[in-house]
Specification:
The radius of gyration is 26 Å and the shape is elongated. A hairpin with a 4-residue loop joins strand 1 and strand 2. The chain folds into 2 domains: 58 residues; 104 residues, Sandwich (Immunoglobulin-like). The protein contains 2 helices and 9 strands.
Length: 189
C-alpha cells in the first residue's frame, strides 16, 4: 500500500478540519458585556494619560500614592464640577474612584479628567468615549456612508479567524501525522 493514508485517517482529518472551521464560524454570534478599565495613579506617574473606553464601561482610577487626590471631570462644561454627571471624587491613599459610563446619560466624545493635588491640577488625563460598543445587533446605528458607526457586532476580527485557521490546520496536520506514524508502526510489526 505504501505511504498513502487510509480512508479512515482521511475521514478523521476531514472531520477534524470541519469541526474546527465550524467552531470559528459559530463564535461571531457571541456578544460581550461592559468592561472595566483601570488607571493607576502612582506617586509622580499616572498610567495611562490617554485612553479609549466604550459607553457602559467603568473607569477605575486607583490611587496607590501616599497622599490623597481629587479626581474631577466637568461633564456639563460649566466649570463647577457639581452637576449630576460631573465627577468630583476624593481618592484617599490606596483607594479608588469609579466612573460608570452609563449609555443613557453619557455620550461619545472626548473628556478631560483632572487629578488634583494640593488644590491644584497635578495631571490631566484624556478619556475618549466611543459609543455603541455594547448595544444589541438589532439596534445598530449607521453613519452617512451606511456603514456601522462603531457598533460591535460581536464578531471575530480577521486576525482571530486567521489564528483559528492556523490552529485548525496545525491540529489536522498533527492528527494526520499521528495516524500515519501509527500505521507505519503497525506495518513494521
Amino acid at each position: 500500500m505504501g505511504d498513502s493514508p487510509t480512508i479512515g485517517s482521511r475521514m478523521i482529518l476531514l472531520l477534524t478540519s470541519i469541526l474546527l472551521s465550524l467552531s470559528a464560524i459559530a463564535a461571531p454570534g457571541m456578544a460581550h458585556g461592559a468592561d472595566t478599565f483601570s488607571v493607576i495613579m502612582r506617586g509622580s506617574l499616572i498610567q495611562p494619560y490617554s485612553f479609549e473606553v466604550s459607553l457602559n464601561d467603568t473607569v477605575l482610577l486607583e490611587n496607590v500614592a501616599d497622599w490623597n487626590r481629587t479626581v474631577r471631570l466637568d461633564n456639563e462644561g460649566d466649570g463647577l464640577f457639581n452637576g449630576t454627571l460631573d465627577v468630583n471624587c476624593l481618592v484617599e491613599t490606596v483607594s479608588t474612584c469609579s466612573i460608570w459610563l452609563d449609555p443613557v446619560e453619557w455620550t461619545a466624545g472626548e473628556y478631560l479628567i483632572e487629578v488634583m493635588e494640593n488644590d491644584s491640577i497635578g495631571f490631566t488625563l484624556n478619556m475618549t468615549v466611543i459609543g455603541g460598543e455594547h448595544h444589541d445587533e438589532a439596534s445598530s446605528e449607521t453613519d452617512d456612508n451606511n456603514t456601522d458607526a462603531g457598533v460591535d457586532q460581536g464578531g471575530l476580527s480577521s486576525e482571530d479567524v486567521a489564528i483559528w485557521m492556523i490552529t485548525g490546520g496545525a491540529f489536522a496536520a498533527f492528527i494526520y501525522f499521528a495516524l500515519r506514524s501509527r500505521k507505519a508502526g503497525m506495518e513494521e510489526e
